[in-house]
């Protein structure tokens, strides 16, 4: 009976091969295997991309957080500037007042220095004129003494020549 069953199986196989059923079945099986391989490769590629996607999403999230922080920082800076505007105006007013006071004191000092320089100039002119008058008097005395010595010498030479 086994032989008969074996013979029947072989006959059925030949019938299936001759009818093309077995060939279609083999092609179908091969296509299923290829489909499974493609799906496995796609899953593998997706799994390989997952870390990249995770990293990219993490980077995007961090960039968004940084942008949000920058925006908050700019808003805070604007608020601080608005808060300190009155203080800046007061400081500016104080600085202008202080500069005006310093200008006044420097002008007063310049006037005082000019007055002192004028006094010194007048004093030096007085002392120079006094010195000139002294020089003139000494020059006159010297010239008188020179004249007297010259006259004295002439008188001697006249006396000597008379003798």
Helix/strand layout:
Blueprint: H1 2-19, H2 21-162
Low-confidence region ranges: none
Mean pLDDT: 84
- Which strand-content bin applies to the residues? under 5%
Number of helices: 2
Percent helix, as a range, is over 70%
**Helices and strands, in N-to-C order?**
HH
| Rg for CA atoms | 63 Å
Q: What is the count of distinct domains? A: 1
Compute the separation of the termini in Å. Answer: 205 Å
Tell me the structural class.
mainly alpha
The tally of strands reads 0
Shape: rod-shaped
The major β-sheet equals: none
Question: Could you characterize what this model shows?
Answer:
- Keywords: Coiled coil.
- Residues 139-163 have a biased composition (Basic and acidic residues).
- Residues 129-138 have a biased composition (Polar residues).
- Residues 120-163 are annotated as: Disordered.
- The protein has 163 residues and is mainly α.
- It has one domain.
- The protein is built from two helices and no strands.
- The longest helix is centred in the middle third of the chain and has 142 residues, at 21-162.
- The radius of gyration is 63 Å and the shape is rod-shaped.
- The mean pLDDT is 84.
